[in-house]
Amino acid sequence: MTKTQKLVLGSWKFHFIAFILLIAFVIATLFLTRDSRRFLEQQTTPNDSTPSCDLFSGKWVYDNISYPLYKEKQCSFAEDAFTCEKYGRKDLKYQKWRWQPHDCDLPRFNATALLEKLKGKKLLFVGDSLNRNQFNSMLCLIEPSIPPSTSKSLIWKGNSIIFEATEYNATIEFHWSPLLVESNCDDLVNHRVQTRIIRVKAIEKHARQWTDADILIFDSFMWWLKPKMTLLWGSFGSPDAIYKEVGMRHRRFEMALSTWADWMEFHINRNRTKLFFMGSSPFHFVGKDWGMDTGRNCYNETEPIFDEGYWGSTTDRGMMQIVESAIYELETRGLKVDYLNITQLSDYRKDAHPSIYRRYYTSLTEEQSAKPESRSDCVHWCLPGVPDVWNVDRLLRMMMAQMASAGMRRSILRYMARGASLAAPPIVPRYGPLECNFSSTVFICASPPSTAGCPCRSYSSSHSFSSGNE
Ligand SMILES: *[C@@H]1O[C@H](CO)[C@@H](O)[C@H](O)[C@H]1NC(C)=O
Ligand SMILES: *[C@@H]1O[C@H](CO)[C@@H](O)[C@H](O)[C@H]1NC(C)=O
Ligand SMILES: *[C@@H]1O[C@H](CO)[C@@H](O)[C@H](O)[C@H]1NC(C)=O
Ligand SMILES: *[C@@H]1O[C@H](CO)[C@@H](O)[C@H](O)[C@H]1NC(C)=O
Ligand SMILES: *[C@@H]1O[C@H](CO)[C@@H](O)[C@H](O)[C@H]1NC(C)=O
Ligand SMILES: *[C@@H]1O[C@H](CO)[C@@H](O)[C@H](O)[C@H]1NC(C)=O
Ligand SMILES: *[C@@H]1O[C@H](CO)[C@@H](O)[C@H](O)[C@H]1NC(C)=O
Ligand SMILES: *[C@@H]1O[C@H](CO)[C@@H](O)[C@H](O)[C@H]1NC(C)=O
């Protein structure tokens, strides 16, 4: 009997019932999961004194022992918009904060286990530069555990950046698609346009690239915040196209998400693809929000905000609610999307943006040169940093989702109902102190001694990025 199971038993009052339940759970698991062996290895320890754990409610604690999770320098694929140390940032405290949920502990991060989890899978990030930031974080997190002899590459193709760790069959991709639907901002490199034109009803061009992903992670907020945008009915360049400039930022976002949801409903393989939507990533341009003088922003900030419940004035709850209700509505149509509520935990981190310590892809104006505040990037996040937490957290959720998928829970309950008429406390897997044990999984490493490092590295650094402030 494993340690996990002992703990479970020990903490329950009615050992006998607990034992029956446990057996039922295990048997159900064996029969009902696709991946039953792995599943058993990943069982978590339910904790009776904590009915559930909201991973997004907690605080940042300084932890210079286990953080940072990787070194910026070892991260060969990170873009220059996120490498703050390289661009002269001297205070490195921002790399050493750990997110501590109130009611449970996150498991220790284990890159090898993460890579193992991605073996044979395609993980796809879709969205704007914040998802690109997170995509970069994901690459940084796994890179140290890829043996140097393994071939890995980063390829730029169309609107995608594709990372492949060949021996693991793992593909991690990012698709630039800042508004999810089609727009005139869809070029991976050149997307700065005067007037944003959006085809709110057209998504196929992007979405056809999503269908073979095992894990799909969306984000889209920032690009909708412009006060005015032009909606397009019909195709770009078509003579009968209709253009209409509109305000109504919430309404147009709603329209686009409805196009997104309709497409998802009919094209996502529910048996294969796990879906996530990132909560909006907050920015820190208004120093007044945390008690600074007018005109101050994230520049020169070196500490998180400790005021629990802090909510920046520029975070648009309305936009978040639109996503939440789109997701809720999709669920009623039988498609589950996990919403990763990272807004508030990130909102505490005024210290974690690049501010002036990044590469700029356009030349600075006179004001920007004279006054550092005016060129501060308070949108993206330095790496190592906040997106690492989004990633670790997400993977956790993924494991939990695997175990707690509604269908399976139903099956277990049905099985139990058949087996015994127990008026049982339902076994609902919960977030608890997790210890995932992957060590009985064989870690295959073909590793023919091949070229050190990445064949596409110079290619990527010769590219000019223009993630800008969005
Ligand atoms: C359950 O969680 C509580 C609060 O976090 C903790 O004090 C307790 O030790 C945990 N119990 C077990 C069995 O892990
Ligand atoms: C971690 O931080 C503590 C307190 O700031 C300090 O005393 C200690 O030397 C630091 N340890 C390392 C390994 O940097
Ligand atoms: C990778 O995929 C190929 C083809 O699908 C398969 O033959 C091979 O065994 C896989 N390798 C690993 C390490 O999973
Ligand atoms: C998904 O799984 C269900 C039940 O396991 C099965 O009936 C269905 O055909 C599967 N769908 C696809 C697209 O594989
Ligand atoms: C930045 O912070 C340091 C230390 O807190 C302070 O001495 C300095 O004046 C600040 N710089 C600006 C431009 O506010
Ligand atoms: C997201 O988390 C915040 C607190 O961190 C909470 O107020 C809000 O209700 C949560 N939203 C959802 C949809 O769970
Ligand atoms: C993980 O499981 C293996 C075999 O199943 C066992 O030998 C090992 O001690 C376990 N590790 C931990 C940390 O529980
Ligand atoms: C991380 O996971 C790997 C593979 O699952 C395992 O061999 C290793 O012991 C783990 N490391 C830690 C520190 O738990």
Write the layout of secondary structure elements.
Blueprint (H helix, E strand, L loop, with lengths): L2 H8 L4 H18 L3 H6 L16 E5 L34 E5 L9 H8 L3 E6 L1 H14 L9 E6 L2 E6 L4 E7 L5 E2 L13 E3 L4 H4 L7 E4 L10 E5 L8 E5 L2 H19 L6 E5 L38 H16 L4 E4 L2 H5 L18 H5 L15 H19 L1 H14 L37 H6 L8
Bound molecules: 2-acetamido-2-deoxy-beta-D-glucopyranose (NAG) (8 copies).
Can you put this structure into words, describing what you see?
The strands form three sheets. The chain has a seven-stranded mixed beta sheet, sandwiched between helices. α7 (249-267) runs parallel beside α8 (317-332). It has 13 helices and 13 strands. It has one domain: 3-Layer(aba) Sandwich (Rossmann fold), CATH 3.40.50. The protein is globular and about 60 Å long. 36% of the residues are buried. The chain has helices at residues 3-10, 15-32, 36-41, 111-118, 129-142, 204-207, 249-267, 317-332, 343-347, 366-370, 386-404, 406-419, 457-462; strands at residues 58-62, 97-101, 122-127, 152-157, 160-165, 170-176, 182-183, 197-199, 215-218, 229-233, 242-246, 274-278, 337-340. β10 and β11 form a beta hairpin. Mean pLDDT is 76; it is low at 1-14, 27-51 and 403-470. The chain is an alpha/beta fold and 470 residues long. One 2-acetamido-2-deoxy-beta-D-glucopyranose binds next to loops. One of its GO terms (cellular component) is Golgi apparatus. It is found in: Membrane.
